[in-house]
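Margin note from the TA: students keep mixing up input and output lines. Inputs are the sequences; the output is the structure of the whole complex. Example:
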Amino acid sequence: MRFDRVIRNAMVATASDTFAADIGIQGGRIVQIGLDLPPGAEEYDAAGRFVTPGGVDAHCHLDQPMEPPLRMADDFDTGTRAAACGGTTTVIAFAAQRKGESLRAAVHDYHRRAEGRAHIDHAFHLIVSDPTEAVLAQELPALIGEGYTSFKIYMTYDDLKLDDGQILDVLDVARRHDAMAMIHAENADCIEWLTRRLEAGGRTAPRFHAHARPMLVEREATHRAIALSELVDVPILIVHVSGREAVEQIRWARSHGLNVFAETCPQYLLLTADDLGIDDSYQGARCVCSPPPRNRENQEVIWQGLADGLFTVFSSDHAPFKYDAPEGKKPGGEEVPFRHIPNGIPGIETRLPLLFSYGVLDGRLTINRFVELTSTNPAKAYGLHPRKGTIAVGADADLVVWDATPRTIRNVDLHHAVDYTPYEGVNVKAWPALTLSRGIVVWDGKNFHPQGGRGQFLRRGRPSLLPARPIKETP
Ligand code: DUC
Ligand code: ZN
Ligand code: ZN
C-alpha cells in the first residue's frame, strides 16, 4: 500500500493508551498504525513528540445571528482558521432558533453562513428557544433524525430562556429521540433582580457583571436542571461549569446514579472575577462572559474535576466580540452598563495549548485524560465517534503533533478576527507543530494553510455516551 502521508516516530496518545508508532494515511483516513511503515508520498517526522487526535471543540459560537448593532467577529472562515492553528479539527457551533422562528429556518440560515467557508469539519447543535407544539412534535424529532443530535437550552437570557415546563417538554423529546440536551444553568430571575439593584446603586461598570451572576445563581439552576432531568429520566450535559457549588450539585447527581455530564472551559481555570476589573475601568468588558470567572479556590475545584473524571468535556465557549468596536463590547460605539455588554470571550485557538501546558505539562492531567476531555469525549457526547476523537484505523486523519517549546500568547499571533485575547502575555509550554485535517496540513507550526470550503458538514449519529436502554413511557 502506498500511503498519501506517513507521520513517523509518533508518540501516539489516545484516551486510553500511549505508544510509539508510525501512522499511515490514505484518502484522508488513518489506514495503518504500526512500526516501520513503508514510505508515503509525504513524510513527516514527529521525532518522538506526542501526536494526539485533532481537538473537537463542542462549544463555540461562530457567526451566530445577533440583534444589531452586535455582530460576532468570527465567521466559519476566521473561526475555523483559528481553531486549526490551535489544534482543533472539528467544531460544533450553534444554529440558534429565534423566538417566533422555526427551528428549520434557523438551521437553513446557519448552513448558508457556513457554506464554502469552513477550513475544517463542523457540525451544528440546535438552540431551542421557542418550543412550540410544532417544534416539539415535528421539527425537533425530524432534525435529530437528520443528524442534529444535540441541542442547547437556556435558563437565562430573555431572548432564549425556557421556563421549567418548557424545559421538561424539550427534555422529553431528547429522551424519546436520543439527543444530548445541553443546559446553560443560571437563574434568570435572580440575575435580573440583582442587576436592577446594582443599577439602582449606580454600579454598572463591567466588573459588576460578576456581582449580578454569583455562584449561587448557577448552583440553584444546576440543581434545578438536575431535578428536571431526573423527572424526565434523561441524561443532560451542563455546559460551562464555573466553580465549586455547581460541581457539588453534579457530584451529588452522579453519586445518586444520575446521568449528568458536565463541561468546563479555559476561562474557569485561568481567569478570575478580577479580570472583569478591580476598579470601574471599562477594560474588564473584554472578560465579560457567563457564567463569569470566579476566584482561585474555584479554579482549583475545576482542576480537581478535570483530573478526577467529574468533567466530561472541555470546550472553549468561544463567543467572539471585538473589544473596541460598535458591533462588539462597545455597542454603538459606547461604553455601556454591564447589562448591555455582549457576553463572551474568544478562546478557540488557545483552548488546547492552555490545557496541554497547565494540565498535562504541569502534571495535573495525564496526556490520556487531556485527549479524552478535548477530543474523544466530545466526539462521543455528540455522535461523532469513532470517525472523530481518536487515532485508530478507519478514523479520519485529524491529527496534532505537539511541540513543547515555550511561547507567550499574543493576540497578534492568533488567527481569529477578534482584537484581543483574554490570555495576552500568558506563557504556554507547547503549541501544535502540525495540524492535519483529514490528512491535509492546515497548520504547520508557523503558517496557516487555507482550505476554505473543504471542511465538511457532519451529520451526527446517536451520542454514544447516552446509556443503551429501552425507552420507557413518560411518568
Ligand atoms: N455565555 C454563553 O452562554 N454563551 C456565549 C458566551 C457566554 O458568555
Ligand atoms: Zn451558555
Ligand atoms: Zn456558549
